Amino acid sequence: MQRFEGRVALVTGGSRGIGFAIARRLVAEGASVVITGRKQDSLDAAVAELEAVLEAEQVAAGSGAGPRVSAIAGRADDPEHRAAAIAHAVATHGRLDHLVNNAGINPIWGPALDADPVVIRKILEVNVIAAFEWTRDAVRARAESSPGLRSIVNLSSISGVAAAPNIPFYGVSKAALINLTQQLAAELAPGVRVNAVAPAVVKTDFARALYEGREASVASEYPLARLGEPDDVAGPVAFLLSDDAAWITGQTLLIDGGASIRPIG
């Protein structure tokens, strides 16, 4: 499928893990993609891999033309970085159709009552406020380009819908992001759709502390008997961004291997 042919997407935190899988899926479906991240070397490696995927698909299709990929390094909560990334997308490709707010942090581990308020504020700043500001900046850019922003997907978490032992304020931030998704969906309709996904444990470096050394035990708690892979999230995100989800907004899709339907007792 080429659901994103001629479209442009910006994926924050797109150099690895779930963000990279989303970028790869969008490129495979015809999009031009701009990814962001904090480290230039990681971004360069990601762009090289995306370009290799793209080149292989072009050869298979017998075509030398296709979508392009690029990267902008910076912190998700830095206003200058946001402005530069969005301006780059519009200047390079003439438009910005889709935004994926994937960047997030969780620098603390342990009970909520032991958390440092300074660190709590940083989590909320990056995971919630920055996602809002990326959205606001992208919407403002919409007025300056045609046809402009179409859809947004926010990366929440299953920790945003239930208690999350040892990562309490990550969960609090992701719960706030779910509500923010609803608020923005109401305000931006009908021009821009806003949805979210809430994955359970996905095998990435970011989530390693949740399963390392006990993967089989953790996986046994899921009805589908395995942990998630980044591609398990990329597919649903691509769906929600695409016109296949044209009558869906303000929703949060649980991607949890059946964890939310586990029998009690």
From TrEMBL:
The residues forming a coiled coil are none
Q: Does Transferase show up as a keyword for this record?
A: no
In its UniProt record, a GO molecular function of this protein is: oxidoreductase activity
> What keywords appear on the UniProt entry?
Oxidoreductase
**Domain of life of the native organism:** Bacteria
- Which Pfam families does the annotation name? adh_short_C2 (PF13561)
Family matches, as NCBIfam families: PRK07231.1
Family that this chain belongs to: Belongs to the short-chain dehydrogenases/reductases (SDR) family.
Its protein name is SDR family oxidoreductase
